[in-house]
Amino acid sequence: MNDRRLFIKKSALTLMTLSMPMVLSCKTGAAAKMNPKKPTKAIVFWYSQTGNTERAGRLIAETLKNHDLEVVAGEYREIDRESVADADLVIAGSPVYYYDVPANFKRWLHALPNIEGIPCAAYVTFGGTGGNQHNTACTLLELLADKGGAPAGMETFGNMSTFAITWSSGNVNRVLKYKHLPDKNAYDKMRDFASLILNRVHEGRNFEIDKEIDFRELIKATPSIWSTKLCITHHTIDKKKCIECGTCTKKCPVDAIDLSKHHVDTDRCIACLGCVNNCPAQAVDMAFMGKEIYGYNEFVRRNNIQIRLPKELSLKPSAL
Ligand SMILES: Cc1cc2nc3c(=O)[nH]c(=O)nc-3n(C[C@H](O)[C@H](O)[C@H](O)COP(=O)(O)O)c2cc1C
């Protein structure tokens, strides 16, 4: 038994060691050329389950407004897809989920209209380290470039992870290590990103998408989601605790929850944890390998964490 375990461990390590140095530089093919331009209308849209990507998107939008641009900003489900082609700067934001851009957001981006030659930029928010963040930002920018957008830049912004399984499995300190984020430096990085993109657009300077292929890029999305799904041993809505607020159904990006029956379609579920992370009544019953999971909002409350806002988004004196 021990020999078998050792063999599996060794094989996994060998695979990782073989793929880690295999960090290839993979430049994306010809993207649309950007012509120097003073943009006047920008659109900033994002996907966000627990607010990190939204906060970054709103700050980027405010920074662009401070540069006298007219800006439309919102969650992708609030954005009129066709209007994206009317902007002269497009910025998209996504969280990194399972080493990738979440499938629901990808689907929406695939259906964007042609944005030929319009400068575009991408940012991702992530938690912890080593989660394929750089490549995910590349993927997001590639999706815009596939629609004809001219890449102007990309960035990654760190946060406390919202992957509820980590703290529910006892690894609380691994998450709390980042509880100070976003701090002043993180917000400055977001402001600088917006200004840098604007400069590049003024100068007509294309950005080259340079993806690194490592083992996480190979096991991203579906394989990762499936391995999590296999370990989710229970996923229902507790009728007694449910306050029928509809937060879980609104947050679920794949319509897997039927609140009238307090039922979760677990085949449809993509394990984004949006329901458990956001339920204000802790009515989502979910277990990972038999252990009960509690969500992000509850984690923040239990640990007395204050997420500070940038001054542009808050009137409170504690803003950064
Ligand atoms: C289901 C799920 C999967 C995640 N996977 C990754 C990952 O692969 N890499 C990473 O760096 N962070 C990962 N995270 C952390 C999130 O990317 C991070 O907390 C992000 O800022 C959340 O953004 P949001 O609040 O806008 O939804 C994951 C979080 C969740 C809930």
Describe this structure in words.
- With 320 residues, the chain is α/β, with parallel strands linked by helices.
- It is 36% helix and 20% strand.
- The protein contains twelve helices and twelve strands.
- It has helices at residues 2-19, 52-66, 103-110, 133-146, 164-168, 172-176, 184-203, 215-218, 222-231, 247-251, 274-278, 296-302; strands at residues 24-27, 41-46, 70-75, 89-95, 119-127, 150-159, 210-213, 232-237, 257-258, 263-264, 284-288, 291-292.
- The strands form four sheets. It has a five-stranded parallel β-sheet with strand order 3-2-4-5-6, sandwiched between helices.
- A hairpin with a 2-residue loop joins strand 11 and strand 12 (291-292).
- Helix 2 (52-66) packs across helix 7.
- The N and C termini lie far apart (55 Å).
- Residues 1-23 have low confidence and may be disordered.
- The structure holds flavin mononucleotide.
Please tag this protein with its features:
3-stranded antiparallel sheet, 5-stranded parallel sheet, binds flavin mononucleotide, disordered N terminus, alpha/beta, 320 residues, 12 helices, single chain, 2 domains, 12 strands, Alpha-Beta Plaits, Rossmann fold
